[in-house]
Design brief:
Elements lengths: L1 H5 L12 H14 L7 E3 L2 H10 L6 H17 L8 E3 L5 H13 L5
Parallel strand pairs: 1-2
Length: about 110
């Protein structure tokens, strides 16, 4: 249905590690369109911290402290079954990640 309204695939990037929020949002999206694809883009903690350091100019010290306080919780949460369709991104370029997502979408009816 979303594809019918927008005429193309709608990508909603978000980091939802808190399971009740994730379940609520996914349930709402599935009411609108039952063919929802969910992919969890993952990376090792070292990779994430390196990426954040490279983008440090975008974050205040307070924001980086907030991220550092939560990173372990997120990584643990993403290891649970609800986030089972994972795409490791440590050594991939964005175009490679997009290609993998499109391959998975084209080979399955919805996740």
């Amino acid at each position: 249905m979303l594809k019918q309204i927008y005429g193309r695939t709608l990508v909603i990037p978000m980091t939802l590690w808190h399971r009740p929020y994730f379940d609520e949002i996914m349930a709402g999206l599935r009411q609108i369109d039952p063919t929802i694809y969910h992919f969890c883009l993952t990376a090792r903690k070292e990779t994430l911290l390196n990426r954040l350091t490279q983008r440090q100019h975008e974050h205040t010290e307070q924001a980086l402290a907030w991220i550092n306080e939560r990173i372990d919780r997120c990584l643990i949460a993403f290891d649970t079954p609800g986030f089972s369709i994972q795409i490791p991104t440590d050594d991939k370029q964005p175009a490679e990640i997009v290609a993998e997502i499109l391959t998975r979408i084209n080979s399955s009816p919805g996740i």
